[in-house]
Amino acid sequence: MTASSPHQPDIAVEMRNIVKRFPGVVANDHVTFIAKSGEIHALLGENGAGKSTLMNVLSGLYAPDEGEIWIYGRHVVFRSPSDAIAAGVGMVHQHFRLVPTLTVVENVILGLDEPRFHLNLTQARAKILELSQQYGLKVDPDAYIWQLSVGEQQRVEIIKALYRGARILILDEPTAVLTPQETVVLFKTLRSMAQEGHTIIFISHKLDEVMSIADRVTVLRQGKVVATVNIEEVTKEKLAEMMVGRPVIFRIEKPRLQPGQEVLRVEDVHARNDKGLPALRGISFVVRSHEIVGIAGVSGNGQTELAEVLYGLRPVEKGHIYLYGKDITQASTREIIREGVAHIPEDRHKEGSLADMSLSENLILKHYRRPPVAQGPLIRWAYVREFARKLIQRFQIMAPGIHTKARLLSGGNLQKLILARELSSEPGLIIAMHPTQGLDVGATEAVRKQLIAERGKGAGVLLISEDLDEVMQLSDRILVIYEGEIMGEVPADRADRNQIGLMMAGQRQS
Amino acid sequence: METAFLITILATAIRAGAPVIYAAVGEIFAERAGILNLGVEGMMLVGAVSGFIAAVQTGNPWVGVLVAMLAGGLLSLIHAFLTITLHADQVVSGLALTIFGIGLSSFLGQNYVGVHGPQFEAIHIPGLSDLPFLGPVLFQHDILVYLTFILIPASAYFIHKTRPGLHLRAVGEDPATADVMGVNVARIRYIYTFVGGVLAGLGGASLSLAYTPGWTEGMSGGRGWIAIALVIFAFWEPWRAMLGAYLFGGVQALQFNLQTIGITIPTYFLNMLPYLFTILVVVFATGERMRRHLGAPAALGLPYIRGER
Ligand SMILES: Nc1ncnc2c1ncn2[C@@H]1O[C@H](COP(=O)(O)OP(=O)(O)O)[C@@H](O)[C@H]1O
Ligand SMILES: [Mg+2]
């Protein structure tokens, strides 16, 4: 650790011995964190390591239970985010803090003293455009937030912080919501900001990213600092070990398998999105047993609608869907579940689990209608408890008990819970949407292994993911989707990133 | 003859609409801040009775108006305290407020039923009042009706074109974000719940001191509920609330005047119309796009507790 005094001139942020407790956990345990002026400093750690908490303390959202903060050598005590922003600290939260029904300008000036009364937005608009030019943050000031893509919303968040004069910019897992291309653009922006003397604190659990963007990195594990190191002095493997506390295997063993019978056949399927616009325009493909078919593409190109159509959650306008040769185009979700289709939804909180119900209740959501869980109209709770305990053990879900509410689980454990429920019925087809999004290394590894194990047992897996590495690593065949159409198909062992990237941008396979 | 009939209907619609406009605009403010106050009917009644008593006692209807506004505002603060500070359920608290207001107003007004008191008279505006057609429709009313002509554009401007209005919208849509951005959520919710109460009280006063002068028990006759329904009909926009209030007023005017020209439609049917209308609007306004753009404030009815997840 750097032996710096609080008054060294090139130090932008100095947090000393920060302690923050929540009921039952010490989220930050005597954390000392130092960021130099003009550097890109990564804060690395698994989910629940305390990264967000530490930065929420720095941005004035949480008051620390112990510890002190200096900003540019000045001792500060933040009572609110406004105090922090006044000292030059701005934060882009993981869940964006934007009001969807307000425009970009309105969001940017929200909470400021200017304009005094009449909302004259000319000046604000001009300043936003200036910032957006300077740092390559393309955005329309008069668009409503709900009209913007996640990537655009993130740019609004950055502009919002810069507009308020932030010199120290914290980004909480900014790439979790971005496509590879958007990530490249964001990194360029961050570098240019750092060059102008801004200090960037970059929260992440993705090692490749940290290696490519950070100057220095601080690793947190279970609320404590493991170390702060210069990026040149470490390797990806070393960082992973520091983060997880044990060596990590990056390659997953995937045995060669001969695909078996046809499980799913999709024929010329058309469907509309929530706004009534065409989202799927003639999609056709096949998934066989013993194979993983990956769907790659930039978000918003029909992936959500595709998963919903297959699971009976969205009407098919035209075309047919067959499961084991049986037409299920018009089938209800319940019928599709009964046919043995598992669904790992995009949003684990909203669609994947019932936040206020217990683990065991969540685990039987697909089983409660039939024996052995059901006995006539009653539920055999003794059986359920046993069932839940077994699954929790088999899927290594870390939770206080089977009666714990689902909302109290971390992202990784919640995902394991969903996997446990979906896979416990021995599905023939698994529709997995972004199954490892936002998960840490350990949980990601577990989820991927499960999918490969199911493939081995004979299931067909449709893997819809924006993480190209994941698609390339797990799939047997890769399809690329663009504006609701399949641009082409490549076998995974001959896949080329560039070629797939071009198809993701709308070029048809030649 | 036909023009005269039309003028009567329109003028009555505007007069009958005024009390509902006050209450509805007040509720728009509260709901825009995320506070659903179902106590409007109660606050109107207490406003009506206390305003009337104060006017009788002092002989000055303006004192009545002030007292009515204060009374409505004070009642709304009970709701504010329960829901904002104590995080009580907004529906339960609002309903309790209405029941309490009905009881309190009957109790206070016991000795004032049938009493003659001061009232606001129609004010002649030179020039405007003498216009053909428009004059009698718009400009032969009392001051409380004229004030609604100012209230509507002023509140629409305030909500959409001012900084406090922006903060108001933000708090109702996304209090957590507003909080992070340095907006004091609880304070704003208190303020606009109070404003809602004040305007409901004023609506009550415009009943007992202008539209139907005097006090009779339960004289608001469900106008508080109509106002709440109109807020939905209006998609939380003052201009549309005005339109809705005039439709309601127009139905009332027809009720009075159709019989005089020999047409009889069952009053029950006419009474039903405003509600029917609202139900239809709610049914048709459920498209995703519509809801996003024009719909209820996203945090309406939900308590805000910082740091809870
Ligand atoms: N608002 C909160 N209330 C209760 N516990 C919390 C809260 N925020 C975080 N925690 C807990 O603190 C720990 C650290 O969380 P967090 O800082 O979000 O981790 P990270 O951002 O590294 O994933 C976790 O155990 C988490 O459950
Ligand atoms: Mg976090």
Radius of gyration of chain B: 19 Å
Briefly, what CATH class of chain B? Mainly Alpha
The hetero compounds bound to this protein are:
adenosine-5'-diphosphate, magnesium ion
Report the CATH architecture of chain B: Orthogonal Bundle
Strand residue content of chain B: under 5%
What is the total tally of β strands of chain B?
Answer: 0
Give helix % range of chain B. Answer: over 70%
Report Rg of chain A: 24 Å
Please give the count of helices of chain A. Answer: 16
CATH fold call of the largest domain in chain A: Rossmann fold
Summing up helix and strand content along with how strands pair, one would put the structural category of chain A as: alpha/beta
Stretches of chain B where pLDDT falls below 50 for ≥5 residues?
Answer: none
Instruction: Determine the structural class of chain B based on helices, strands and strand pairing.
Output: mainly alpha
Brief overview:
In chain A, 31% of the residues lie in helices and 26% in strands. Chain A is of the alpha/beta class and 510 residues long.
Labels describing this entry:
heterodimer; A: 510 residues; alpha/beta; Rossmann fold; six-stranded mixed β-sheet; 31% helix; globular; disordered N terminus; B: 309 residues; mainly alpha; ABC transporter involved in vitamin B12 uptake, BtuC; 13 helices; 71% helix; binds adenosine-5'-diphosphate; binds magnesium ion
Architecture blueprint of SSEs:
The complex is a heterodimer of chains A (510) and B (309).
Chain A: E1 11-22, E2 25-36, E3 40-44, H1 51-58, E4 66-71, E5 74-76, H2 81-86, E6 89-92, H3 104-109, H4 122-134, H5 150-163, E7 168-172, H6 180-195, E8 199-204, H7 207-213, E9 216-221, E10 224-230, H8 236-244, E11 262-272, E12 278-288, E13 291-296, H9 303-310, E14 318-323, E15 326-327, H10 333-338, E16 341-344, H11 359-363, E17 374-375, E18 378-379, H12 381-394, H13 411-423, E19 429-433, H14 441-457, E20 460-464, H15 468-474, E21 477-482, E22 485-491, H16 497-504
Parallel strand pairs in A: 3-8, 3-9, 6-7, 7-8, 13-20, 13-21, 16-19, 19-20
Antiparallel strand pairs in A: 1-2, 1-4, 4-5, 9-10, 11-12, 11-14, 14-15, 17-18, 21-22
Chain B: H1 2-32, H2 40-58, H3 61-85, H4 90-109, H5 134-138, H6 143-161, H7 163-173, H8 175-180, H9 185-211, H10 223-233, H11 238-258, H12 267-284, H13 288-294
Helix pairs in contact in B: 1-6, 1-9, 1-10, 1-11, 2-3, 2-4, 2-9, 2-10, 3-4, 3-9, 6-7, 10-11, 10-12, 11-12
The complex binds adenosine-5'-diphosphate (ADP) and magnesium ion.
